[in-house]
Amino acid sequence: MAAEIIDGKAFAASVREKVGAQVATLVQDHGLTPGLAVVLLGDDPASQVYVRNKGKQTREVGMHSVEHRLPESTSEEDLLKLIDALNNDPAIHGILVQLPLPEHLNSDLVINAIDPAKDVDGFHISNVGLLGTGQKSMVPCTPLGCLMMLRDYHGSLSGLNAVVVGRSNIVGKPMAQLLLGDSCTVTIAHSRTKDLPSVVRGADIVIAAVGRPQMIPGAWIKPGATVIDVGINRIPKEDGKTRLVGDVEFDSAVEVAGAITPVPGGVGPMTIACLLANTLTACCRANGLPEPEGLTA
Ligand SMILES: NC(=O)C1=CN([C@@H]2O[C@H](COP(=O)(O)OP(=O)(O)OC[C@H]3O[C@@H](n4cnc5c(N)ncnc54)[C@H](OP(=O)(O)O)[C@@H]3O)[C@@H](O)[C@H]2O)C=CC1
Ligand SMILES: Nc1nc(=O)c2c([nH]1)NC[C@@H]1CN(c3ccc(C(=O)N[C@@H](CCC(=O)O)C(=O)O)cc3)C=[N+]21
């Protein structure tokens, strides 16, 4: 029996619809328009596509959207000045600095310069600490999107064995924290893990966040497991063009898994939808209004 395909694109559209409805209420009842600023350094084509999609979808849900495209050579001082201005701009409730930053910049320093209340990526050390101690925080968008899909599919995650492959600060670690928060038994695997296939085989939930095209084959997956593929990898096609694939070998995994997210159309669209949800949450918190419903962790 082939797995159920978890439709991240449709799920993301439903999240955006909820965000849009709550934005409309904010505008009508409180005269407030949530605002998101995205900062992009350099001209990496893939990053440009994401930034364009973010801007378009931000406007579609009725939010205020600002893009700052700066040259690759921008100095740390100038970038910190821009962040300071955005921190102090009352029309901006969310700030996202697109990663990775050029090598000459210290990304920890830059991220920690963002007002934690406006850190809609959830990467600031305060938000990381709040999440790790189970307190209210801004939750990183990609793991939040994965959690929403898992909760929707499973109902309760309590007691399930979850394996997160990858330990980055932006995906693997926060994903593990969220799963722990929902009472999964969590294993974090990485490049030094011994016998990864057997670690993955023990999982009811597999989160693949490695950045290696199609690395996890169906043969590693426990029959019936839920597979969330975070990987976004561009590989060459026979016709000279490229296509997107995940970190999971979809064709073999779909035959074994109980449910699986495709690439494209899985985690990616949910990431952007959660960015909009976080911006709405930040705007509500900044104005002492109740948290948006069904959009936080
Ligand atoms: N869909 C979305 O919205 C998003 C998708 N992504 C995608 O997710 C993927 C991961 O991103 P990110 O977390 O930033 O990546 P990083 O490169 O920061 O981290 C990759 C992790 O994978 C581990 N790893 C590498 N090789 C292996 C291996 N052979 N076996 C086991 N583990 C391994 C690394 O281990 P170690 O620490 O030991 O080096 C590391 O912890 C990428 O494809 C990226 O494009 C990222 C963000 C958002
Ligand atoms: N500060 C910061 N925050 C991020 O959240 C962040 C970042 N930097 N740097 C880059 C990664 C990557 N990322 C993606 C978002 C959406 C899609 C997405 O929408 N993907 C579509 C396909 C898009 C396409 O066709 O290229 C899909 O999977 O269906 C993918 C990847 C966010 N990231």
UniProtKB/TrEMBL annotation:
Transmembrane regions listed in the UniProt entry: none
Where is the Tetrahydrofolate dehydrogenase/cyclohydrolase catalytic domain positioned along the sequence?
6-121
Q: Do you know which InterPro entries this protein is assigned to?
A: Aminoacid_DH-like_N_sf, NAD(P)-bd_dom_sf, THF_DH/CycHdrlase, THF_DH/CycHdrlase_cat_dom, THF_DH/CycHdrlase_CS, THF_DH/CycHdrlase_NAD-bd_dom
Question: Which biological process annotations from GO are given for this protein?
Answer: L-histidine biosynthetic process; methionine biosynthetic process; purine nucleotide biosynthetic process; tetrahydrofolate interconversion
Q: Which reaction does it catalyse?
A: (6R)-5,10-methenyltetrahydrofolate + H2O = (6R)-10-formyltetrahydrofolate + H(+); (6R)-5,10-methylene-5,6,7,8-tetrahydrofolate + NADP(+) = (6R)-5,10-methenyltetrahydrofolate + NADPH
Q: Record's Gene Ontology CC terms? A: cytosol
Q: Give the signal sequence positions.
A: none
Keyword Magnesium among UniProt keywords = no
Residues given in the record as NADP(+) binding sites? G166, R167, S168, I232
Pathway field of the UniProt record reads: One-carbon metabolism; tetrahydrofolate interconversion
Q: Which UniProt keywords apply?
A: Amino-acid biosynthesis, Histidine biosynthesis, Hydrolase, Methionine biosynthesis, Multifunctional enzyme, NADP, One-carbon metabolism, Oxidoreductase, Purine biosynthesis
Q: Which GO terms describe its molecular function?
A: methenyltetrahydrofolate cyclohydrolase activity; methylenetetrahydrofolate dehydrogenase (NADP+) activity
Q: Does the keyword Hydrolase apply?
A: yes
Q: What is its EC number?
A: 1.5.1.5, 3.5.4.9
Can you give the residue ranges of the Tetrahydrofolate dehydrogenase/cyclohydrolase NAD(P)-binding domain? Answer: 140-285
Q: Describe the task this protein carries out.
A: Catalyzes the oxidation of 5,10-methylenetetrahydrofolate to 5,10-methenyltetrahydrofolate and then the hydrolysis of 5,10-methenyltetrahydrofolate to 10-formyltetrahydrofolate.
Similarity annotation: Belongs to the tetrahydrofolate dehydrogenase/cyclohydrolase family.
What HAMAP family does the record tag this protein with? THF_DHG_CYH (MF_01576)
Q: How does it assemble?
A: Homodimer.
What is the official name of this protein in its record? Answer: Bifunctional protein FolD
